[in-house]
Amino acid sequence: MGVRDGNTSDSTETPVAIEECLALGLDGVRGIVADSKAYCQRTLGLCLEKGVGLITLVPHTCAVRQELEAWGQQHGALPLLLEKPGRMRQEPPRRWYGQSVIRSVAVEYVDGRQDVAEIRFLVVHSSQLAHQAAEAYAAAQAKEAKRVAEHVQRVAARWFACVADAEAAIAEYTGRGQGRRGRKPQPWRYHALRYRVEAVTQRQKRTQRVRPSKTGS
CA angle, corner 112, sides to 106 and 114, nearest 5? Predict the structure, then answer.
């Protein structure tokens, strides 16, 4: 299908690539395998309209994936789809469990018309990937916990002249500020932090150890 423009989003470029591929008139074109960037309403509508099969990974942000993940966790006894021996003798066999389900999702056709169509999804649970995901999740939590501890120390060490300045800093910490260099503030992923303002009075030290005059100067 040629070299695509790297500056264009995959969700926008993939339907264009499919249309150009179909315009070639090749009889053997029956489907396409793509990553999660190809999953969008326009791509689904185009594949349904042109009769092209699409195998892709549904992104984590899609509501249908979140719903199917919750559904799969409730159905622990999924059928065994594939089993392979471990890469080494001491490794347990790798197993993939899954079940095919149909869900109604929003699609967009070539003419811009939006509709709801039934799409087949395959809910798959991999024992190997689940172990890797658990290790990665634990490592990410530990790494962020270290960053949180450093952040708490920096916040506790900051002093402000008034309540307004402290509340402005809290707004920046919680992601309600403008961010830096045009980037949106990113809240913590695995931890929830809460802030509060405390009033502290600090006595000023005199430069000279003498008795203060009656005039206060």
Answer: 25
Residue identified by tokens 């994936």 is: 65
Residue 119 lies in a domain: no
Domain extent for 30: 1-57
Strands 31-33 and 53-55: parallel
Nearest to 190 by CA among 147, 128, 156, 152: 147
pLDDT digits (tens, 9 = 90+) for 20-74: 888 887 666 678 888 888 888 988 998 898 888 888 989 888 899 889 888 887 8
Report residue 121's pLDDT band, with 50, 70 and 90 as the boundaries: very high
Residue 44 covered by a domain: yes
- Of 106, 176, 125, 186, nearest to 151 by C-alpha is 186
User: In angstroms, rounded to a whole number, what is the distance separating the alpha carbons of residues 152 and 216?
Assistant: 40
**Cα–Cα distances in angstroms (integers) from residue 186 to residues 84, 88, 164, 174, 178, in the given order:** 40, 41, 23, 9, 11
The beta strand positions in the chain, using DSSP E, are: 31-33, 53-55, 80-84, 94-108, 114-126
Q: Which tokens in the block code for residue 96? A: 């993939």
**Number of folded domains that form the chain:** 1
Specify the 3-state DSSP secondary structure of 162: coil
